[in-house]
Design brief:
alpha+beta; 3 helices; four-stranded mixed sheet; Ribosomal Protein L31e, Chain: W
Length: about 100
C-alpha cells in the first residue's frame, strides 16, 4: 500500500506540517459538526497552500468521522504535500 501511495503522490516538492484548529465547527448544530469541520480543513489548506482544490485523503476523512457526526476532534495535526504537478494532498500525521 505504501508503494501505491507514493505513486499517487509523485515527487513531493513541498511538505508542511500544521495543526488545524477545528474550534469553529463546534458552533454548528451537532448534526452538522463534522461536515463543517471538513469544510474548515479544506479552507485552511486553500489559505495556507494557495491552492484551489486540495485533496483530503481518506485517512483524514476517516479520522474526522471516527467519533460520528457529533464528535469532531478539537484540532487536527496534518502533513500537507505538494507534488511537481502542483497537486496538494492532506495526510494525517503519524501518531494522531
Amino acid at each position: 500500500m505504501a508503494e501505491r501511495e507514493e505513486e499517487d503522490e509523485g515527487e513531493v516538492v513541498e511538505e508542511r506540517i500544521y495543526t488545524i484548529p477545528l474550534k469553529q465547527a463546534w458552533i454548528a448544530p451537532s448534526n452538522r459538526r463534522v461536515p463543517r469541520g471538513v469544510r474548515l480543513v479544506r479552507s485552511f489548506v486553500q489559505k495556507h497552500m494557495k491552492v484551489e482544490d486540495p485533496i483530503i485523503t481518506p485517512e483524514v476523512n476517516e479520522y474526522l468521522w471516527s467519533q460520528g457526526i457529533e464528535g469532531l476532534p478539537r484540532r487536527l495535526r496534518v502533513r500537507i504535500t505538494r507534488d511537481a504537478e502542483d497537486v496538494v494532498r492532506v495526510h494525517l500525521v503519524k501518531g494522531n
